[in-house]
Amino acid sequence: MSVQEYTPQAFHRQAHDALGNPQIRANFRKAMGGLMDKRREAFAEWDLETLRELGANIRLRALARLPDLLETLETNCQANGIQVHWAEDGDEACRLIAKLCQEHGAKQVVKGKSMVSEEMHLNAYLEKAGIKALESDLGEYLVQLNEQTPSHIIMPAIHLNTDEISTILHDKTGLERSRDVDFMTAAARAQMRERFMAADVGISGVNFAVAETGTLCLVENEGNGRMTTTVPTVHIAVTGIEKVVEHLRDVPPLYALLSRSATGQNVTTYFNMIGGPRKPNEHDGPREVHLVLVDNGRSRIYQDNELLDTLRCIRCGACMNHCPVYTRVGGHSYGTTYPGPIGSILMPHLMGLEATKELPSASSLCGACGEVCPVKIPIPDLLVRLRQEAVGEGRGNVPGAGVKRNRTEVAAWKGWQWLATHPRAWRSGTVIAGKLRALTPSKLGVWTEHRTAPKPARTTLHALIKRHRRETNS
Amino acid sequence: MSARDNILRRLRQREDGPLQAPKSDFGVMTGRGWSQEERLARFERLITSVHGEVQHVSRENWTQSLIELLKTKSIRRLALGKTHPIAQEARQALATADITLVDVDRPIEDWQREQFENVDAGLTSTGGAIAETGSLWLWPTEDEPRLLSLVPPVHIAVLEANRIEDTFYELMVNLGWSKNMPTNALLISGPSKTADIEQTLAYGVHGPKELIVLVKN
User: Fold this and answer.
1) Boundaries of each LUD domain copy (chain B) (predicted)?
2) Which of A74, A112, A118, B20 has the fewest CB atoms in 10 Å of its CB?
3) What is the pLDDT of residues A88-112, one digit of tens each?
């Protein structure tokens, strides 16, 4: 199955196309409108700042002790009968998972929602290995049927409206055309139930991995996650190494923040805590549980005190829901697994700045993402830091640092700096600029595509102030 | 070197040096101070707001309410445990009713399709509930396996009214969960739902379409 291609390199064209697509704009406007209000209402009874502080502290504490916690997690998972595997990058994780599937003769696997599996393109890898991976979350299922990637980390099919979904289900599964959401949902339920029973392996992500108890926590509304991790004989959970928390009691505050930030729900329908495979006396549940811990660039982000904050993310998507850029161009425009503000600070680490140099600039720096982030990631600061990295003025810690460096721009700023620090040259320069204002160009490349070119004022500010003082004193 | 060793080495030899772990103050998760009546009212209000149904039943006569409920919902085949007092009382009361009781104390491999296609409802006990979010908590056992609360289209859960904690945090800490985690622990807050089709809520997408909580007072 070929997936419609979007790339971060083509961000500008993709964003331009999305802005010119009334359907996409209407779908996103409708979907995002209510989400901000719902989030605000869900926190109405809370001391939100204190809760965010706690959430941020829990994540920072986990990161401060990360290597130790990963070892504790491994030990306690193994004690619970969960087999733990480590992968340096997405390819290695894919190989590990494919091998586990092959060892069990799996031809069909069902998958719960997992962003890290999207990040490592697991479905495509499995398909090449002759294993069909079927997404079980309704949104993911629709997106997969439509041969697309998710456009939001919580609501994968948010870019599609009811009519489009009706057409997808009709074209791909032969379902009778209908605009009735209950009818379509019931049909998907029936289609999926057969797949749950037929699947040899269930693959899921992890929301929180608890070091203290070796427990894997999964947050969901549909029950597909519970099906995926309970019905097939083998359950493989895959997670980024940063998802670990120290104690079981660290989970309730993060869960409270996650469900309310993501969709404005007080709580999701299911909170599933997996503590191991079926015991000999138990009658259902998988007979084997595997946990695959994936680094894929995370330990590199971890080296830098500032960039490290990216790893606090609990994948709620609130930054997307509140971003004026995301809500207008949609998730596909970014061309990356994680779109929106979090994607713009995470993807440069995962893919390098050569491919993603446009993303840190896909922001008005309005600050909304940082304001709503439940774990207080200073996203705007990190966007600025990555812009610096891209023009070669950071610490060079991100792959591809300096890729956006432009000699003319550097020379222009150097010249500006010299002028601004030499008062005599500045004064005569501004006077001359004022006299020559008719000669300034009206087109300045991309800048003037949507803006009017700046023109020096007839009279300088200094001269204006002088005149003003003279007049008020006389 | 293995991937494991490489990853751990990189994390331990951090360029910017060791990190300080901040202390966490969990005060915001406690101190709700609700009375038992408030807890129950809150639980009921929240779980009904997400499409759960609550029926208040008497401690002595709850099985009578169960029989009426099964009749109203046209439930013919009910799956339930055997050893939990709830299951025992239900089995006793339903022995004479026109209801087929489906045993769940057998390996799922032997009756998977039957469970997916021929069971109208599953009856489970609950460990208790959480007032703050309107959630039930369940620790599936060999008597009440994991899928009993998930696969049948209707889930009937029995809750003791005096087993409602204020918050998830307090439930976990007060009951010492970290010392004693089972193979599977669940919070359930309403029937299965989705809003993936243009944000329109639909129930029963993969799990139960209906969740009915019988609260024993």
Assistant:
1) 41-215
2) B20
3) 999 999 999 999 999 999 999 999 9
Residues A80 and A41 in one domain: no
Q: How many domains does chain A have?
A: 3
Which of A247, A267, A296 delimits the end of a domain? A296
Cross-chain Cβ contact B28/A50 below 8 Å: yes
Same domain as A319, residue A222: no
pTM score of the predicted model: 0.94
Query: Would the ipTM clear 0.90, i.e. be above it?
Result: yes
CA of A278 vs chain B CAs: smallest distance (Å): 7
| A384 domain-assigned | yes
**Is residue B86 one of the residues assigned to a domain?**
yes
Question: DSSP string spanning chain B?
Answer: --HHHHHHHHHHS-TT-PPPPPP--GGGGS-----HHHHHHHHHHHHHHTT-EEEEE-TTTHHHHHHHHHHHTT--EEEE-SSSHHHHHHHHHHSSSS-EEEE--S-GGGTHHHHHHH--EEEEE-SEEETTTTEEEE---SSS-GGGGTSSSEEEEEEETT-EES-HHHHHHHTTGGGS--SEEEEE-SS-EE-TTTT--EE-SSS-SEEEEEEE-
Model pLDDT for residues B52-97, shown as the tens digit of each residue: 999 999 999 999 999 999 999 999 999 999 999 999 999 999 998 8
Chain B partners within 8 Å of A31 (Cβ) = 198-199
Q: Do A275 and B196 touch (CB under 8 A)?
A: no
Last residue of a domain, one of A386, A405, A424: A405
Query: Cβ B29–A54 below 8 Å, yes or no?
Result: yes
A165 contacts in chain B (CB < 8 Å): 197-198
